[in-house]
């Protein structure tokens, strides 16, 4: 970003900045000869992820650095110190695709020394070769360590977070299940107490029976419930029952059919349209209450199941190395990735349920399944995801298969290489499969890929006699 105010820099001014302390006159002259001084208005200076083409040194003004995390731009640092720098600071790296690591903005009009990144890189490598070698080694080592250790550290953080979360969720979920069950018992007791003070015992028996039916899950399809609701509505309407269609919807949801309506009518509770309306209204209220109690119970039980799946996925209650059911690990991973299973994805579990438990680091294997399933879903917005298990002699074979377009022959040999990725910049570090291979290798197993259009398989074999590695 250079405007009409750009001009050559002043060596004496550079000599005053901490950044250039110790440089010789020749070195300062070399920098000045290849740089320009420009005054820029407030606004964006460089954007994170764009090619790093320029290095900026603040002479007067103020720079704000920020970084994207998720969908937010987080401010990290603001300075007006003369000599502060930003932009292509890693121009010394022997890489043709160096990117800006942060967003940099000017908070007010500022005067900057602007150096071309290629020029700065050549300057650093020729004037300070040893220092540049050390910086390259340190930078690449730091990036490599971060990419390798980052997933493991996030897994530890996930475990710590999940430990507290599962405890906090499990207690109220269990309490809600107990409360729903106790409430159902209290409602039944209330009906019976009403009978003791003169309520029709025939109607009470009907209440108990319809409550029993409503408390059990029905196997009717949506279409069958719709047909039943229509038939019930017509029957109730024909018998002069008020709010016939509202009651019909409630009875149909519980699977209570026309035969039950006839039984109510013939029980003596429906001698007149008014009496039948009152009986139906009372029974409908009981059915609706039972349906709501069942819904509460099912929902809270589902919460408990999800909590158990999270615990299974993060292996909170297990030793690091133990025996595990491979199918439980796969199912818990699928549960964690359920948000990615869109309506166009069909999951097929082709499991050999005779497999013995596998000695393993279960949390690490879940990381393998996470990477493999994520990659399959990336390659296949819609299609069939197949998880297959088999026993082969003293090993367990696990296949993660997708029906995507496949991996080209020239790419397939490289998919396990560290830092290799076919995803756009910023969407993948190219380390998921490398980490998966390392984990499987630690277990004494193997991981490889087979691919054809419409049939890509990542195959993992794990020994049944593994020892802690």
Automatic annotation (TrEMBL):
It is an enzyme of class 2 (transferase). InterPro entries: cNMP-bd_CS (IPR018488), cNMP-bd_dom (IPR000595), cNMP-bd_dom_sf (IPR018490), HATPase_C_sf (IPR036890), HATPase_dom (IPR003594), His_kinase_dom (IPR005467), RmlC-like_jellyroll (IPR014710), Sig_transdc_His_kin-like_C (IPR004358). Keywords: Kinase, Transferase, Two-component regulatory system. Coiled coil: none annotated. Its EC number is 2.7.13.3. One of its GO terms (molecular function) is protein histidine kinase activity. It catalyses: ATP + protein L-histidine = ADP + protein N-phospho-L-histidine. This is histidine kinase. It comes from Mycolicibacterium litorale.
């Amino acid at each position: 970003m250079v405007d009409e105010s750009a001009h050559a820099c002043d060596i004496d001014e550079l000599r005053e900045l901490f950044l250039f302390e110790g440089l010789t006159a020749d070195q300062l002259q070399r920098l000045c000869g290849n740089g320009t001084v420009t005054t820029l208005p407030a606004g964006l200076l460089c954007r994170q992820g764009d090619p790093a083409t320029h290095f900026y040194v603040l002479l007067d003004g103020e720079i704000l650095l920020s970084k994207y995390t998720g969908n937010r731009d987080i401010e990290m640092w603001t300075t007006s110190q003369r000599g502060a720098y930003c932009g292509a600071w890693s121009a010394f790296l022997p890489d043709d695709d160096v990117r800006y690591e942060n967003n940099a903005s000017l908070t007010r009009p500022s005067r900057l020394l602007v150096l071309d990144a290629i020029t700065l890189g050549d300057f650093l490598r020729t004037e300070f070769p040893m220092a540049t070698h050390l910086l390259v080694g340190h930078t690449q080592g730091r990036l490599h360590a971060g990419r390798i250790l980052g997933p493991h550290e996030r897994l530890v953080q996930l475990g710590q977070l999940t430990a507290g979360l599962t405890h906090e969720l499990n207690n109220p979920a269990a309490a809600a299940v107990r409360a729903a069950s106790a409430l159902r018992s209290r409602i039944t007791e209330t009906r019976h107490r009403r009978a003791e003070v003169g309520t029709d015992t025939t109607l009470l028996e009907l209440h108990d029976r319809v409550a029993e039916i409503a408390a059990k899950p029905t196997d009717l399809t949506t279409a069958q419930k719709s047909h039943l609701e229509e038939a019930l509505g017509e029957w109730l309407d024909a018998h002069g029952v008020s709010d016939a269609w509202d009651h019909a919807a409630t009875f149909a949801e519980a699977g209570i059919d026309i035969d039950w309506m006839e039984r109510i009518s013939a029980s003596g509770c429906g001698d007149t349209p008014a009496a039948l309306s009152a009986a139906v209204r009372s029974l409908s209220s009981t059915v609706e209450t039972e349906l709501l109690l069942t819904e509460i119970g099912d929902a809270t039980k589902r919460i408990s199941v999800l909590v158990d799946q999270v615990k299974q996925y993060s292996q909170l209650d297990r030793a690091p190395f133990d025996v595990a059911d491979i199918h439980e690990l796969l199912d818990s991973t699928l549960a964690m990735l359920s948000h990615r299973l869109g309506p166009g994805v069909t999951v097929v579990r082709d499991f050999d349920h005779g497999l013995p438990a596998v000695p393993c680091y279960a949390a690490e294997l879940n990381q393998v399944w996470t990477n493999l399933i994520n990659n399959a879903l990336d390659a296949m917005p819609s299609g069939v995801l197949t998880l297959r298990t088999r026993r082969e002699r003293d090993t367990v074979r696990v296949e993660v298969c997708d029906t995507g377009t496949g991996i080209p022959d020239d790419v397939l040999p490289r998919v396990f290489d560290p830092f290799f990725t076919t995803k756009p910049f910023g969407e993948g570090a190219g380390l998921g499969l490398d980490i998966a291979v390392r984990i499987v290798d630690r277990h004494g197993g193997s991981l490889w890929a087979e691919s054809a259009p419409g049939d890509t398989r990542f195959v993992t074999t794990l020994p049944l006699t593994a020892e802690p590695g």
